[in-house]
Amino acid sequence: MRFALTGAAGYVAPRHMKAILETGSDLVAALDPHDSVGILDKFFPECKFFIEYERFDRHLEKLRRHGRGVDYVSVCSPNYLHDAHCRLAMRVGADVICEKPVVSNPWNLDQLKEIEKETGKKVYVVLQLRYHPELLRIKNSLDNKMHLVDIHYVTPRGPWYHTSWKGDIEKSGGLATNIGIHLFDLAIWYFGKVQACEVEINQPDKVSGILQLERANVKFYLSTNRSDLVGDESAHRSIIIDNKPLRFDDIFDDLHVSVYRDVLSGGGLGIEDARPSIELVHAIRKMK
Fold first, then answer.
1. Does residue 185 have a pLDDT over 90?
2. What is the pLDDT of residues 136-166, one digit of tens each?
3. Contact at 8 Å (CB) between 127 and 256?
């Protein structure tokens, strides 16, 4: 398969490059306004690189016209650009593999679905925790009774975080979207649809509340504030289900290769899989 990639200088892009390489595919074009992308040499040294969106767009269209178009565009750009980059991909005849969150607002999902229908292309969403063998084992072991769940996730960030696009709620969607989206997707995947949500704290550096799902009551606390750590902790990440802690030592192993293999073999998770968590983080963002 022939791939293009947006957000080549970002934190998560090397995981996508590795997945493209390990699935026997080729990365032929990459986009990022930042030109510090020496990482490309490790994976695809011949990849064409662009710092301007318009030139990248024209290049993909030219490839398409000459019968050498890309099969997939991997979207690793900042959250607020995901929607536009998914649209670009489908318009040049490619399917999409998009990082979380695929969009920030639920109505953008409906618009992407319309473009899927128009083009016959598809948006696949990276929800990698669903591919973790231990998390899948836990899901299969759960019964239908009500469960008590506590999500406590503190991952400190310095002043750069709030100065960057990640600290701009209009660009990132806020803390619940940028950091919490995978955890909320996991909880909904485990315990069913959202019944109610109450937010207790909603600040730029911390969000907490209570989430009622079909089969669980979930307390959540998300923070980037170092003062929320205890002792010499560098981070604190825990999910406790019915007083049983879920270990986080290797929970964020690089699962992107598994995501790519699933998509390329005809599987993959799409817009409707992502919708419940997108609707939830949007609702949290609006709560005071």
1. yes
2. 999 999 999 999 999 999 999 999 999 999 9
3. no
**Domains in the chain with CATH codes:** 2-128+255-270 (3.40.50.720), 133-251 (3.30.360.10)
> Are 16 and 47 contacting, i.e. CB atoms less than 8 angstroms apart?
no
Question: What 3-state class would DSSP assign to 194?
Answer: strand
Question: Would you give the end-to-end CA distance of the chain in angstroms?
Answer: 46
With CA atoms as reference, report the closest residue to 246 among 147, 127, 101, 99: 147
- Residue 73 phi/psi, 5-degree rounding, is -115, 125
DSSP-derived pairing of the beta strands 194-203 and 206-213: antiparallel
Encode pLDDT of 245-287 as tens digits.
987 666 666 799 999 999 999 999 999 999 999 999 999 999 9
